[in-house]
Amino acid sequence: MRALVLRAPKSPLVLEDRPAPRPGPGEVLLRVRACAVCRTDLHVVDGELPDPRLPLVPGHQIVGEVLEEVPPPGDGPRFARGARVGVPWLGWTCGVCAYCRAGRENLCDRARFTGYQIDGGYAELAVADARFCFPIPDGFPDLSAAPLLCAGLIGYRTLRLAGDAERIGIYGFGAAAHLVAQVARFEGRRVFGFVRPGDDAARAFALSMGAEWAGASFEAPPEELDAALIFAPAGELVPAALRAVRKGGAVVCGGIHMSDIPSFPYSILWGERVLRSVANLTRRDGEEFLALAPRVPVRTEVNVYPLAAANEALDDLRNGRMSGAAVLVPP
């Protein structure tokens, strides 16, 4: 098979011919039909996340066709040959630690992640643990489904951790934001978008995705917010968001990596404001969101790149040259 391979952090991916992977017990072999590009992929490639398994095939928003499944001993197959399944960031957990037993498998200390410790979907073929694959809902073509598997899932979890907030501010209007904004509007919430100063295209995109107001990241919204969701990996947005939310409101950071948060006065946290992070996702998040997405229905804005152009897609994402999500398509 052909695959894009990370040989060392802070270096371009290399297109290589590799032996086709073979599934082990409990795993499925997939023909990759589409793989969306995530900012987390950038953090891995740019060396901002520590100790990736190298050499590594990145990519964790995989839509694949089941070619083969090897059931574990004493168990039957989960997916029929030819089924379309999605592979998310969370690729394996131990199942026995206190976090796993409490339904918080996203915090498992031994967890392994697709495109980080497990080869991912920047390839023609991929292997995944069948327990951590999701059936793709009918009505979502491959290109539309791929961004749901991280941008959609993390956005969904971030929104849930904001509670029942009505006025939602979204900082960083990229792949996750444009999906969660649609869910928030479907649930009757009001959306306020925050974009880079001077980025008129992003402002227009936020408005087109259901935001009733969109402005610069450090601009005060026209009303106090009940909660703020931060998807941009910029720590300086945390104090800005705290200033924008009312007393008792929440600021939820949805990314796996963020630049350092600058010091800020206690007064903007006081008033029982809550500041919290989102770590990964659970399989329950995936099941709930993929059942909800067709009801909204969630519409994904995608920018399509051939598999061999993965470095170009990453660079466009790195430099803010796209709206919506980038999706790689193998030949």
Provide an overview of this structure:
- By secondary structure, the chain is α/β, with parallel strands linked by helices.
- It folds into 2 domains: 2-149 and 281-329, Alpha-Beta Complex (Quinone Oxidoreductase, Chain A, domain 1), CATH 3.90.180; 153-277, 3-Layer(aba) Sandwich (Rossmann fold).
- It contains 9 helices and 17 strands.
- It has helices at residues 39-45, 98-101, 142-145, 151-161, 175-186, 200-208, 237-244, 283-292, 310-318; strands at 2-5, 14-17, 27-37, 62-70, 84-87, 90-92, 112-113, 125-129, 134-135, 167-171, 190-195, 213-216, 225-230, 245-253, 274-277, 302-306, 325-329.
- The strands form 4 sheets. Strands 3, 4, 5, 8, 9, 16 and 17 form a 7-stranded mixed β-sheet that branches.
- α4 packs across α5 (175-186).
- The radius of gyration is 19 Å and the shape is globular.
- The termini are close together.
- The mean pLDDT is 96.
Topology readout:
Blueprint: E1 2-5, E2 14-17, E3 27-37, H1 39-45, E4 62-70, E5 84-87, E6 90-92, H2 98-101, E7 112-113, E8 125-129, E9 134-135, H3 142-145, H4 151-161, E10 167-171, H5 175-186, E11 190-195, H6 200-208, E12 213-216, E13 225-230, H7 237-244, E14 245-253, E15 274-277, H8 283-292, E16 302-306, H9 310-318, E17 325-329
Parallel strand pairs: 10-11, 10-13, 11-12, 13-14, 14-15, 16-17
Antiparallel strand pairs: 1-2, 3-4, 3-8, 3-17, 4-5, 5-9, 6-7
